[in-house]
């Protein structure tokens, strides 16, 4: 949709008239052309949340509009992917009769070198079973704008805030993606 507030709102209203949930990507930050960001900032009591203390995907939000759920995700592919898995997929599952609960399990980190960060990080990664335990490694490319590693990822790796790099052997939480076993590294 165009970066024009009135047209964007009309497009969203039409979508919400036809769907139970609308997910948008892009335009949710604070720039002049970020019309979704303005919509979220002006939502008042219909705002569920805006801006999360996570990386990537901090530019995410949710509002109730016309009695329906509108989820806004970052326009950066890697951040949008993380936001979808953490926010939109659980909402869709819940609306479809499932629990909507984020399921996590523990895995051993296979390699060192994950940089420190003040916020929790949700890295695209690959998990496999090794010696009877889940072992995880981050995808080589994990920037917010990164696209290629989305195809190889079979999990989100939850890296807690830390002043030091996360080392190999550390136990971390991982969210296995649908079909994860078909994309385990060789």
Key phrases:
EC 2.10.1.1; 28% strand; Molybdenum Cofactor Biosythetic Enzyme, Chain A; molybdenum cofactor biosynthesis; elongated; molybdopterin molybdotransferase activity; 2 domains; five-stranded mixed barrel; alpha+beta; transferase; 186 residues; metal ion binding; Beta-clip
Description:
The chain is α+β, with helices and mostly antiparallel strands. It folds into two domains: 91 residues, MoaB/Mog-like domain (Molybdenum Cofactor Biosythetic Enzyme, Chain A), CATH 3.40.980.10; 79 residues, Beta-clip (Beta Barrel), CATH 2.40.340.
What does the secondary structure layout of this molecule look like, with pairings?
Layout: H1 5-18, E1 21-25, H2 35-41, E2 47-50, E3 61-65, E4 68-73, H3 77-95, E5 105-109, E6 121-130, E7 133-138, E8 155-159, E9 171-176
Parallel strand pairs: 1-4, 5-7
Antiparallel strand pairs: 2-3, 3-4, 5-9, 6-7, 6-8, 8-9
Helix content: 10-25%
At the third CATH level, what is the topology name of the largest domain?
Molybdenum Cofactor Biosythetic Enzyme, Chain A
Largest sheet: 5 strands, mixed, barrel
Shape: elongated
User: Strand pairing plus helix content: what structural class?
Assistant: alpha+beta
- Order of strands, main sheet, comes to 5-7-6-8-9
Order of helices and strands: HEHEEEHEEEEE
Number of helices: 3
Strand proportion: 25-35%
In total, how many beta strands? 9
Q: Identify the CATH class of the largest domain.
A: Alpha Beta
- Rg value: 18 Å
**How many domains would you count in the coordinates?**
2
Distance between the termini: 41 Å
- Give the CATH architecture of the largest domain: 3-Layer(aba) Sandwich
CATH superfamily of the largest domain, by name, is: MoaB/Mog-like domain
Task: Write down the overall mean pLDDT.
Answer: 88
The poorly predicted ranges are none
